[in-house]
Design a protein that fits this description.
With 160 residues, this protein is α/β, with parallel strands linked by helices. Strand 4, helix 1 and strand 5 form a beta-alpha-beta unit.
Amino acid sequence: MQHESNGHAILAADSNLQVEERHVSFEASSRGDPFSGASGDGKVVLLVEDEPALREILSEYLQDFGYRVREAEDGVAALRIIQDDPAHIDMLVSDIGLPGGVDGTQVARAMQTHRPSVPIILITGYSRDPFVAGTDLIRKPFDPLELAERVNTRLSPRVS
């Protein structure tokens, strides 16, 4: 189901993994210009999401913030990327519920094993999904702008 307006999308996936996209005007946002100060500086985000439409939308938002996005459609593909090239991943964003026998919590733990300093955001549509220590959690439905802002915050240099 799609609800049109101008601006960005608020996403939800129902139990049949159908993506709902509702457009909301940027101008109406209390956050002001959503891309002001956005500078991913080419940092690499590994995005793990099995729903193609949702993965595409999230990838586009992250790219709009200046991040390079490597995509994986399931946990097995994500583990392959993590094992083959962990040094070139600056952040992991993963859905928890993934097909193929490897879920997002397992992907997160593998990332923590290979590169403990990499920030991790897990996404879930379920209230009882397990939480992995040292990660952030975003619950569906969510605004992809919220995800992009959280990635931006976690990867921005900290001023002491």
